[in-house]
Design goal:
Strand content: 5-15%
Number of helices: 12
Largest sheet: 3 strands, antiparallel
Strand order of the largest sheet: 1-4-5
Order of helices and strands: HHHHHHHHHHHHEEEEEE
Number of strands: 6
Shape: flat
Length: 514
């Protein structure tokens, strides 16, 4: 719909502009023409009126002896000179006559402007009205087209603004999501529980004394305490699982990246996984022991809970080197992935640059080939056109030669037939002339020129190309015979080219019924 409106607006603008240009050109032409004639006849009209009034005031005898329309030499002006002067004065005063500024005397208007000055004035007024109407129509078309085009442009600009705003919003959301993903991708620092320090030798010696002074109340450990501590150790080992997942992803992208680095990373991760298997088994054993301790909670004492805590702490101490190794492998993996992505991006950019360079280099060649193809096709079309023209010219030239030669022979045959007819009226032997005539007719027939005669009593209408009717007609009593061929005065000749294609060398002469 919007495209249709733009097309309609363009059509209206073109029509309005064309009509406006035509009106302005007509007005400029009329003004230039009027200025040209006014420069020649600026004061001629008033001077002519004054001379005419003076001539009217003279006696009738002087007016008869001294005509009014005289040239500079005192001679009577010719009709051509009078007509040119009248037309020049009329062209110079047309605009003022149309505006009513000049009112020529009725007896003098025909002498001043010519006999047809009123018709010229009416034509001038009609042309001015037509120009005013066309000017109004052009302004209406141009205004409507301009309004439609302006509305279309505003709508287009609004749509572009909405698209730009939505694009900026999407870009901002994408950038914000990328930043959040980058923040979430940062490895969280593992929470490390405080490990109680081993007492020194001096502290071990002073410990019984302090215990003697302080009354210690045995605390019964809860059922979830060993499980919570062991689950804390498992929580600390969760980054190892993430490292294994990243290693698996790295193996899946091994085809597009560097072959040596992912293989080495995979080998190191596999080794770390092998080292972590004893720790997993130890943790499972500790978990079983913790469950047993929880089941025997009622019968255990403070020493049993202390021993379980000590064992969990030892397990955590043993798992720290493995966690550190997994953290190092995780860092290497995260560093390796951006390097591979950057190398892939650089490779893709280099390939795209090379393809663009090849395309840029091939553009001149493509344009040259297209130009050559167009030139060759134009040359072929011109050659075919010239060949057709040459064939037509050759056919016409040959036909003119054949027709001219045949007409000369046919004229000789006509002369022989007229002589034979005259000699037969005088009872003179015409056998030799008839033989010559037959030989000429046979020569024409052997060259493709055949003699023909239209059928008598047939309609002449439709046979105008084959026969021409003479002015003298033969009378008849039957009205149905009117327009039919009465007799053949002179046979016709036609050139046989092929079946259904003949050319008339000379039409036959016939007489019609009237």
């Amino acid at each position: 719909m919007r495209k249709n409106l733009s097309v309609i607006a363009s059509i209206l603008l073109v029509i309005g502009g064309s009509l406006l240009w035509w009106v302005l050109a007509q007005r400029r032409e009329d003004s230039e023409q009027a200025a040209h004639y006014k420069s020649k006849c600026s004061t001629a009209t008033d001077e002519h009126v004054r001379q005419y009034n003076e001539w009217l005031q003279t006696p009738p005898q002087e007016r008869a002896e001294l005509p009014f329309l005289l040239d500079a030499d005192g001679k009577t002006k010719t009709r051509e000179q009078l007509w040119q002067e009248q037309q020049a004065r009329l062209r110079a005063d047309l605009d003022r006559l149309a505006a009513g500024e000049i009112t020529a005397p009725p007896s003098f208007a025909d002498v001043l402007y010519g006999e047809n000055w009123q018709a010229e004035l009416s034509e001038y007024n009609r042309r001015k009205d037509q120009q005013a109407f066309v000017f109004t129509g052009s302004m209406v078309c141009a205004s409507v087209g301009g309004l439609i085009y302006a509305w279309w442009m505003l709508l287009r600009a609004g749509r572009l603004a909405v698209k730009a705003t939505s694009g900026l919003k999407r870009s901002f959301r994408r950038w914000r999501g990328t930043a959040e993903q980058a923040d979430q991708a940062k490895p969280e620092s593992a929470e490390v529980e405080d490990v109680p320090k081993e007492p020194k030798s001096g502290e071990q010696q002073d410990r019984p004394a302090r215990l003697a002074k302080i009354s210690v109340r045995p605390v019964t450990p809860s059922a979830d305490e060993p499980r919570r501590r062991c689950m804390g150790s498992l929580t600390q080992r969760r980054p190892a699982t993430g490292a294994r997942e990243k290693t698996a992803e790295l193996k899946s992208d091994e085809k597009s990246g560097d072959a040596e680095t992912p293989a080495a990373a995979a080998t190191q991760c596999q080794a770390v996984c092998e080292q972590s298997k004893p720790i997993d088994s130890a943790l499972n054993g500790d978990r079983e022991k913790t469950s047993e301790l929880a089941s025997d909670e009622k019968s255990s004492d403070a020493e049993t809970s202390t021993a379980a805590a000590t064992q969990c702490q030892a397990v955590l101490e043993q798992s720290k080197p493995i966690d550190n190794a997994l953290n190092r492998e995780r860092k290497k993996t995260t560093e390796l992935m951006p390097d591979e992505a950057s190398s892939d991006a650089e490779t893709a950019a280099a390939v795209a640059t090379q393809c663009q360079a090849v395309l840029e280099q091939s553009k001149p060649i493509d344009s040259t080939l297209n130009d050559l193809t167009q030139q060759v096709s134009a040359i072929r079309e011109y050659a075919a056109h010239q060949q057709d023209r040459l064939e037509k010219l050759q056919d016409g030239y040959d036909w003119n030669i054949i027709r001219t030669f045949c007409l000369r022979v046919i004229r000789a045959v006509d002369n022989l037939e007229s002589r034979i007819a005259r000699f037969k009226e005088d009872n003179v032997e015409t056998a030799y002339l008839e033989e010559v005539r037959d030989e000429l007719i046979f020569a024409l027939e052997s060259s493709g020129i055949e003699q023909f005669e239209p059928e008598t009593e047939s309609e002449y209408r439709g046979q105008e190309k084959l026969a021409e009717a003479v002015k003298e007609k033969q009378g008849c009593d039957d009205p149905g015979q009117v327009g039919k061929i009465a007799n053949v005065i002179r046979p016709g000749y036609q050139y046989f080219i092929n079946e259904g294609h003949v050319k008339i060398v000379r039409p036959a002469q016939v007489r019609l019924y009237a």
